From TrEMBL:
Protein name: ALA-interacting subunit
PANTHER family cross-referenced by the UniProt entry: ALA-INTERACTING SUBUNIT 2-RELATED, CELL CYCLE CONTROL PROTEIN 50
Cellular component, GO annotation: endoplasmic reticulum; Golgi apparatus; plasma membrane
InterPro entries hit by this protein: CDC50/LEM3_fam
Keywords, alphabetical: Membrane, Transmembrane, Transmembrane helix
Top-level taxonomic group: Eukaryota
Family: Belongs to the CDC50/LEM3 family.
Cell compartments where the protein resides: Membrane
């Protein structure tokens, strides 16, 4: 057992030394002082712009390509049963299935018409954008093939467009362009 565990431990220790972590809690710094105790009121207040620019500096350290960026959200329970079940796979697959909303509760209708895509998963679309630079030179980010091939080819229809999305009174996450397919990866919508 030791003959197996020691080499695995050495490999894991070497790999962890190559990881560089920056923690930035922008949800604290980007909220105005008057809303620090009531962030929900800040989110609902459409008169205040929600733009926030953060500059994070990575200590000069050699990094071998490819460099992977990990984005973490805390206190966002996307594994909660109600959240996971709140979507319609049929609706995302076929253009004629826009009325397949039985599993989309609570984000089902807006202005008495079905929402496409419906459900909490679609409603909580994040619209954070990122740019990376080295000095004054902007770095290119490869945004191709960020979704699994099975999702691109079999799970999401190639002719389903957003309809009646985020047209109600409470807006959450990003807007979807009704002229861009639902199957288009998020990074290409920005």
């Amino acid at each position: 057992m030791g003959a197996i565990s020691i080499p695995v431990g050495i490999v894991a220790a070497r790999a962890s030394k190559s990881v560089y972590e920056i923690v930035d809690h922008y949800s604290v710094d980007c909220v105005p002082d008057s809303y620090k105790n009531n962030k929900l009121a800040y989110i609902k207040d459409h008169s205040i712009p929600k733009n926030c620019t953060r500059y994070l500096k990575v200590v000069q350290k050699y990094m071998k390509a490819p460099i992977y960026i990990y984005y973490q959200l805390d206190n966002f329970y996307q594994n909660h049963r109600r959240y996971v079940k709140s979507r319609s796979d049929k609706q995302l697959l076929k253009v004629l299935a826009c009325n397949e909303i039985s599993s989309c509760d609570p984000e089902v209708y807006s202005n008495d018409q079905p929402i496409v895509p419906c459900g909490l998963i679609a409603w909580s679309l994040f619209n954070d954008t990122y740019t990376f630079s080295r000095g004054t030179t902007k770095l290119n980010v490869d945004r191709k093939n960020i979704a699994w091939e099975s999702d691109r080819e079999h799970k999401f229809g190639k002719s389903v467009y957003p309809f009646n999305f985020q047209s109600g009174t409470l807006i959450g996450g990003g807007k979807l362009d009704p002229n861009i397919l639902v199957s288009t990866p998020i990074s290409f919508r920005l």
